[in-house]
From TrEMBL:
Residues 696-813, 827-1073 form the SLC12A transporter C-terminal domain. NCBIfam families: 2a30. This is Solute carrier family 12 member 4. The lineage of its organism: Eukaryota, Metazoa, Chordata, Craniata, Vertebrata. It holds the Pfam family AA_permease. Keywords: Cell membrane, Chloride, Glycoprotein, Ion transport, Membrane, Phosphoprotein, Potassium, Potassium transport, Symport, Transmembrane, Transmembrane helix, Transport. PANTHER family: SOLUTE CARRIER FAMILY 12 MEMBER 4, SOLUTE CARRIER FAMILY 12, CATION COTRANSPORTERS.
Length: 1073
């Protein structure tokens, strides 16, 4: 039974963010690092005395010293209260100094007041009043429906995932940050917490910009400080006005939040009432417009919409008494007021002025979209118009688009009106039954807002003229708010209501964002944010508020609501994406602590919500999406490398370790069945002098063969002593890892230091892997240039490695001409992979092409299998049997049997064998006389020393006679001089012996096989993309190693890409299911 530690709630002044799950711990040190033996609460001494003398529990008296009774535990859990860090404590702190010692009231808020209405207030916002009409006019009813459906579906799926997480235990304030950090770990939690904080901060900037737009455009237009000198400077003047007034408004709001949060919370009900009244007035106005449409006329010149506040009468002329005189509209378009000789705009002369109703009732047809470019004039289809460009000076008289519009832009602008679903989970400490209220209240709020948005789209599209809808700022309706023209009883209801609602939403955002940052800072997972965890004596986050104001000022300086909305959309979508991911991961991992009371969730819904969040991010703005993901990624990496270690019981780490241990123990039970066999590869890499991978295409080939499946170990050997080469080992390992990342090889890297390279390779072959996760196949490169090198160590190390793999019963693959192998970016659209099946190797030759064809590089290649028939074999029956065998293996391949008849050994074969043996004999004599050559070099120059280059396929233990260290000074006698001269005179005799040498018959037979087989392979497979061939085994006698290398060269001559394969002595493919 665990140890319980009780801390009286009233004695704790620390924030709930300081504790693991909102419970204040008596023996905690730091934040989030709690003792495992104190998972709950402790009891008081007085209560312990009564517990100890309980006669019915006398048997457990000693245990009751450290463990409470179940009844005591339950009473404390029931009385435990989780008060959110927020307005409540700060109100009490400002009212009285003794507030910290007050016993907190038990939470008593229900679903309606605690979740539903706060979510409504946060979801409904500035976009509904200022931009939804413009979105409907630009996109049309159908596409607007799609935009609303996409955004609201995303938030609904997120709400389902959030409800599951929120009902899986107590969720203190911090909302999404707390839920994700405790579900996915500190790295994800910190990254998403910062994204949520930035989204809330930019939301404050957006609400302030919306309030200033209402103030300057519709409430007090004369208050503008900057004015446009011409129609080109209008945009810059508007932006500058927004910046000045936005900064002033932000400063005032920050002062209000700093002085007292209680005023913000007391005004919350007023702001919510403004939102509800405004929405009701829209519905009332829409119903009224069906029977009695309001009089908002639009003046059209041809089919172009005119700015109505530039003139008084929608007519070219007016009748004053009995005289027709030019109207104000005429004077705007004409330079001369004389009607007899007017100098007017061409378009004005050729087109008539008409007046149409801005709200025709239900007669509008705005089903389809009309996207505009920046500066394009708003036109109404169906009105007669003579197309003339008109004068440039007249452009300012028309209503035109201020920005270029597209479907993706509208998605990014609308999405903030669907956010705000976290309001309920942030108040979980104030709820009577949080695990019931949060799901019901949040889902009902999203359903309500979605219905309002859908109905608003229909009402706006049906009741308001399309030209008015596309008029963002109401220029065509005398600078009235477009949605206000539809409202009842007066447009001022919407204007005033939307102004107060946006101001209230801005205050709420400025109140919530600093507390979220303070929560992240107090968790101490991001070191550079620690300063923001401090505040006033009552806990008010002063420094966090200052940073929030500075970041919000950046949004104010952008000064465009349409530019700020996609930014906060990105951050909220990132947050919602990880909420869905947290729910999906917890559901799939089935961690023991995952027991949410909300049962109507599924991992597929979470993945769908996650996919929609990601899609909406890139639909809205792909470059903002990349920036948001980079910010989250950098924070994640920073926490991973620099952040404090936290153990919050997130399911991923613990379960990953348990799963890995369990799997390794299962693999220890025995070798895998043939059906489960796949190449677990050990790749032997060669590094150059600069510690760079010499043949990176070796890794490319392995990545194509593995396709991310199974085990891959990349090994390399550094020659030297471990104590002296540790730094070089680390650098080599990092270089190999970098190349593995480039070539997309998923696996492990191991670099060993050995005094001899062949010993290092043997160590790798023996010891790589862990338990059952060990390699069964070795991939190594071909020793290129071995013929030209006088040093035999390279090819001798190669043959030694072949022998080691054979002794360890491992399969071996040697890609020859690996530099010609395709990269991962190439695609073979045709061609064949030819398999030459000479001897049975357990089925490796059959399996490898099948695995290669799983990769996109080789997918289009066909497979051909060739086998060799001797004189006494029935080639027709062999072909039938092989085709049947392949059919049972479920491998599609063409089959061909090649007949090799007995023939006399050709002169070419004899000469080739002779050349091979003469070369071997010559090199052997050269190596035997190396001591004499070294002595001559010593005589010429004493200061020169022998520099030996070590490589992966080189070794010092060969029979190269090295100069003796103690003979640096040599004394020559007459006898030594005569012996040296005789050795030189014997050189012609040695040459004559080489010329008279006769080749060994066994070597001639082997060379004959290699030559004949090579002729057949080149004839059949000269144009193949890849040739797979059985690799002959090395000779038992080491004296024939050099001849063995020559046989392999002859066997593969004339082929571009060859893969030599040697089986490991077990079956790797089966016909059974």
């Amino acid at each position: 039974m665990p140890h319980f530690t009780v801390v009286p709630v009233e004695d704790s002044a620390t924030s709930n963010y300081d504790s693991l799950e909102g419970i204040n711990w008596g023996e905690s040190v730091g934040h989030g690092n709690h003792k495992e033996d104190s998972p709950f609460l402790s009891s008081a001494d007085a209560e312990r005395k009564t517990d100890f003398y309980d006669r019915n529990l006398a048997l457990f008296e000693e245990e009751l010293d450290i463990r409470p009774k179940v009844s005591s535990l339950l009473s404390r859990l029931v009385n435990y209260t989780n008060i959110t860090q927020g307005a409540r404590e700060h109100e009490e702190a400002e009212n009285t100094e003794m507030s910290l010692r007050k016993v907190p009231k038990s939470p008593n808020m229900g679903t309606l007041m605690g979740v539903y209405l706060p979510c409504l207030q946060n979801i409904f916002g500035v976009i509904l009043f200022l931009r939804l009409t413009w979105i409907v006019g630009t996109a049309g009813i159908v596409q607007s429906f799609l935009i609303v459906l996409m955004c609201c579906s995303c938030t609904m799926l997120t709400a389902i995932s959030m409800s599951a997480i929120a009902t899986n235990g107590v969720v203190p304030a911090g909302g999404a940050y707390f839920m994700i950090s405790r579900s996915l770990g500190a790295e994800f939690g910190g990254a998403v917490g910062i994204c949520f904080y930035l989204g809330t901060t930019f939301a404050a900037a957006m609400y302030i910009l919306g309030a200033i737009e209402i103030f300057l455009k519709y409430l007090v237009p004369p208050a503008a400080i900057f004015h446009a000198s011409d129609h080109h400077g209008g945009d810059s003047a508007i932006l500058n006005n927004m910046r000045v007034y936005g900064t002033i408004c932000l400063s005032l709001m920050a002062v209000v939040v700093f002085v007292g949060v209680k005023y913000v919370n007391k005004l919350a009900s007023l702001f919510l009432a403004c939102v509800i009244i405004s929405i009701v007035s829209i519905y009332a106005g829409a119903i009224k417009s069906v029977f009695q449409p309001p009089d908002f006329s639009i003046c059209m010149l041809g089919n172009r919409t005119l700015v109505r506040d530039q003139f008084d009468v929608c007519s070219k002329t007016v009748l004053v008494g009995n005289v027709t005189v030019p109207s104000q509209l005429w004077r705007n378009f004409c330079s001369s007021g004389n009607m007899s000789s007017p100098q007017c705009d061409d378009y004005f002369n050729q087109n008539n002025v008409t007046e149409i109703q801005g709200i025709p009732g239900l007669a509008s047809d705005n089903m389809w979209g009309d996207y505009l470019e920046k500066g394009q004039i708003l036109e109404k289809a169906g009105l007669p118009s003579v197309d003339f460009h008109g004068a440039v000076e007249s452009v300012g008289l028309y209503v035109s688009a201020d920005i270029a519009t597209s479907f993706t832009l509208l998605v990014g602008i609308f999405f903030p009106s669907a956010t705000g679903i976290m309001a309920g989970s942030n108040r979980s400490g104030d709820l009577k039954d949080a695990q019931k209220s949060i799901p019901i209240g949040t889902i009902l709020a999203i359903t309500t807002t979605t219905l309002v948005y859908f109905s608003s789209v229909v009402l706006f599209g049906a009741c308001i003229e399309g030209a008015v809808l596309r008029d963002k700022f109401g220029d065509a309706v005398s600078k009235n708010l477009v949605v206000g023209t539809l409202s009842w009883p007066s447009p001022w209801v919407i204007v005033i209501g939307s102004f107060f609602s946006t101001v209230g939403a801005g205050l709420q955002s400025l109140t919530g964002a600093p507390r979220l940052l303070q929560a992240i800072a107090k968790d101490n997972i991001i070191p550079f944010l620690r300063v923001f965890g401090h505040g006033k004596a009552n806990g008010e986050p002063t420094w966090a508020l200052l940073l929030t104001g500075l970041i919000a000022e950046l949004g104010i300086l952008i000064a465009s609501l349409d530019m700020v909305a996609p930014i906060l959309s990105m951050f909220f979508l990132m947050c919602y994406l990880f909420v869905n991911l947290a729910c999906a991961v917890q559901t799939l991992l089935r961690t023991p602590n995952w027991r949410p009371r909300f049962k109507y969730y599924h991992w597929a819904l979470s993945f769908l919500g996650m996919s929609m969040c990601l899609a909406l991010m890139f639909i809205s703005s792909w470059y903002y999406a990349i920036v948001a993901m980079c910010i989250a990624g950098m924070i994640y990496k920073y926490i991973e490398y620099q952040g404090a270690e936290k153990e919050w019981g997130d399911g991923i780490r613990g379960l990953s370790l348990s799963a890995a241990r369990y799997s390794l123990l299962r693999l220890e039970h025995g070798p895998p069945h043939t059906k489960n066999w796949r190449p677990q590869v050990l790749v032997l890499l060669k590094l150059d002098e600069d510690l760079h991978v010499k043949y990176p295409r070796l890794l490319t080939f392995v990545s194509q063969l593995k396709a991310g499946k199974g085990l891959t170990i990349v090994g390399s050997v550094i020659q030297g002593q471990f104590l002296d080469s540790y730094g070089e080992t680390q650098a080599s390992e990092q270089a190999v890892k970098n190349m593995m990342e480039i070539e997309r090889v998923k696996g492990f890297c191991q670099v060993v230091v050995a005094s001899k390279v062949r010993e290092g390779i043997a160590h790798l072959i023996q010891s790589c892997g862990l338990g059952g996760m060990k390699h069964n196949t070795v991939v190594m490169g071909w020793p290129y240039g071995w013929r030209q090198s006088e040093d035999p160590r390279a090819w001798k190390t190669f043959i030694h490695t072949v022998r080691c793999t054979t002794a360890a019963h491992l399969a071996l693959m040697v890609p020859k001409n690996v530099s010609f192998y395709p990269s991962n970016h190439e695609r073979f659209t045709d061609g064949t992979i030819d398999v030459w099946w000479i001897v049975h190797d357990g089925g490796m030759l059959m399996l490898l092409p099948f695995l290669l064809k799983q990769h996109k590089v080789w997918r289009k290649c066909k497979m051909r299998i060739f086998t060799v028939a001797q004189m006494d074999d029935n080639s027709i029956q062999m072909k039938k049997d092989l085709a049947t065998f392949l059919y049972q293996l479920r491998i599609e391949a063409e089959v061909e049997v090649v007949e090799m008849h007995d023939s006399d050994i050709s002169a070419y074969t004899y000469e080739r064998t002779l050349m091979m043996e003469q070369r071997s004999q010559m090199l052997r004599q050269m190596r035997l006389s190396s001591a004499e050559r070294e002595r001559e070099a010593q005589l010429v120059k004493d200061r020169h020393s022998l520099i030996r280059m070590g490589s992966l396929y080189s070794d010092e233990e060969e029979e190269v006679v090295e100069p003796v260290a103690d003979k640096n000074q040599m004394t020559w006698t007459k006898e030594k001089y005569e012996a040296e001269r005789r050795n030189r005179n014997n050189a012609p005799e040695n040459f004559r012996e080489l010329m008279s040498l006769k080749p060994d018959q066994s070597n001639v037979r082997r060379m004959h096989t290699a030559v004949k087989l090579n002729e057949v392979i080149v004839n059949k497979s000269h144009d193949a993309r890849l040739v797979l061939l059985n690799m002959p085994g090395p000779p038992r006698n080491t004296d024939g190693d050099e001849n063995y290398m020559e046989f392999l060269e002859v066997l593969t001559e004339g082929l571009e890409r060859v893969l030599l394969v040697r089986g490991g002595g077990r079956e790797v493919i089966t016909i059974y299911s």
